[in-house]
């Protein structure tokens, strides 16, 4: 069994103050010292809840790369990338999957997204998220495993796409798929 720690990147809930990178780095380094196997970072644009001020958040990929440099042993994962914010193939091109000593730096967590205010703010469709996510995985999976994809779907297309960056792991980084199920009445 492996144990991971979620490192919060969002503004403080009490006073909406921005967390400093120094604080985030210190938490990640302490998690490594304490023996955690992995640290996880959220991919959001902001948090907005009714009756509360909008809270900002550090950009996931930037902090992920910085923490890969600031730590030596822990794996670092995205919990989780929403397939709407980058294009479906973008994570496949990311250069964060590198061997650091005895560890690989990246576990790629992806999901369909849940925070509707983010979609609304940027004019992104919130409908058919499962179908869109299924197509996104049909692009991302082959790009990560084989370095190539040729796909045309209802929502996305990736025609004759290749990853040109060196892929340190032949099969790409581990891919973790998140799914939230909501109960519904008929």
Helix tally equals 5
How far do the termini sit from each other? 39 Å
Class based on secondary structure composition and strand pairing: alpha/beta
Number of strands: 10
Report low-confidence residues grouped into runs of 5 or more: 91-95
* SSE ordering: EHEHEEHEEEHHEEE
Specify the biggest β-sheet. Answer: 6 strands, parallel
Shape: flat
Helix content: 25-40%
Mean pLDDT rating = 82
Please tell me how large the radius of gyration is.
17 Å
Strand content: 15-25%
Walkthrough of the structure:
This protein is about 30% helix and about 20% strand. The chain is built from five helices and ten strands. It has helices spanning about 20-35, 60-70, 90-95, 115-120, 130-145; strands spanning about 5, 40, 75-80, 80, 100, 105, 105-110, 150, 155-160, 175. The strands form three sheets. Strands 1, 2, 3, 4, 7 and 10 form a six-stranded parallel sheet that branches. A hairpin with a 4-residue loop joins strand 8 (about 150) and strand 9. The longest helix is centred in the last third of the chain and has 18 residues, at about 130-145. The relative contact order is 0.14.
Properties at a glance:
single chain; 186 residues; alpha/beta; 6-stranded parallel beta sheet; two-stranded antiparallel sheet; 5 helices; 28% helix; flat
């Amino acid at each position: 069994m492996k144990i991971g720690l979620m490192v919060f990147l969002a503004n403080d809930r009490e006073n909406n103050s921005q967390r400093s990178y120094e604080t985030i780095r210190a938490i990640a380094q302490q998690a490594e010292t304490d023996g955690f196997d992995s640290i996880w970072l959220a991919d959001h644009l902001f948090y907005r809840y009714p009756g509360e001020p909008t809270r900002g958040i550090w950009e996931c990929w930037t902090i992920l790369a910085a923490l890969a440099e600031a730590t030596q042993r822990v794996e670092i994962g995205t919990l989780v990338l929403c397939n709407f914010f980058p294009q479906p193939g973008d994570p496949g091109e990311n250069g964060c999957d590198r061997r650091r000593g005895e560890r690989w730096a990246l576990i790629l967590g992806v999901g369909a997204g849940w925070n509707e205010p983010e979609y609304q703010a940027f004019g992104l469709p919130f409908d058919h998220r499962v179908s869109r996510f299924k197509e996104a995985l049909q692009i991302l999976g082959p790009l990560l495993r084989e370095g190539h994809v040729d796909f045309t779907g209802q929502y996305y297309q990736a025609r004759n796409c290749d990853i040109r960056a060196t892929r340190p792991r032949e099969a790409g980084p581990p891919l973790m798929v998140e799914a939230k199920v909501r109960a519904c009445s008929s």
